[in-house]
Q: What sequence folds into this?
């Protein structure tokens, strides 16, 4: 009897954390984009030549499920290889860039 109650508690704690972790994982990218100032150029009213994040998400949707293609894209972006050099892009750490790109590939939600 005691063990049954004990098990039940553990199972529900596990479910509780799983439910909490999922939406948070989705949020990490957008919160990061806000923190890093990305929205000041890529928001709903894009600045200059900057494409909006929704537009970029559409462009990167094809990378979904291909981690190595995604990573190549991240590296090029950070090096400013295929864009004019933009400070905000080059300042981003490799890890942060990876999270931000993954968020875009997943639809920028
Ligand atoms: C100062 C304005 C500015 C800021 C801040 C900025 N960007 Fe950009 N970004 C641009 C411009 C302009 C372009 C388009 C350059 C071009 O097409 O030559 C661009 C292009 C991009 C692209 C498209 C690359 C491609 O596939 O063509 C991505 C992805 C991107 N930015 C992500 C980000 C992220 C993530 C952040 C935040 C860390 C960020 N940007 C911050 C101006 C900015």
A:
């Amino acid at each position: 009897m005691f063990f049954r109650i004990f098990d039940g508690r553990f199972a529900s704690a596990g479910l509780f954390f799983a439910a909490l972790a999922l939406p948070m994982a989705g949020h990490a990218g957008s919160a990061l984009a806000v923190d890093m100032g990305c929205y000041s150029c890529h928001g709903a009213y894009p600045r200059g030549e900057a494409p909006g994040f929704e537009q970029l998400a559409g462009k990167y949707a094809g990378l979904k499920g291909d981690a190595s293609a995604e990573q190549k894209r991240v590296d090029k972006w950070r090096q400013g290889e295929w864009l004019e050099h933009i400070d905000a892009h080059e300042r981003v750490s490799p890890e942060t860039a990876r999270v931000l790109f993954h968020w875009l590939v997943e639809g920028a939600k």
User: Anything to note?
Assistant: The radius of gyration is 19 Å.
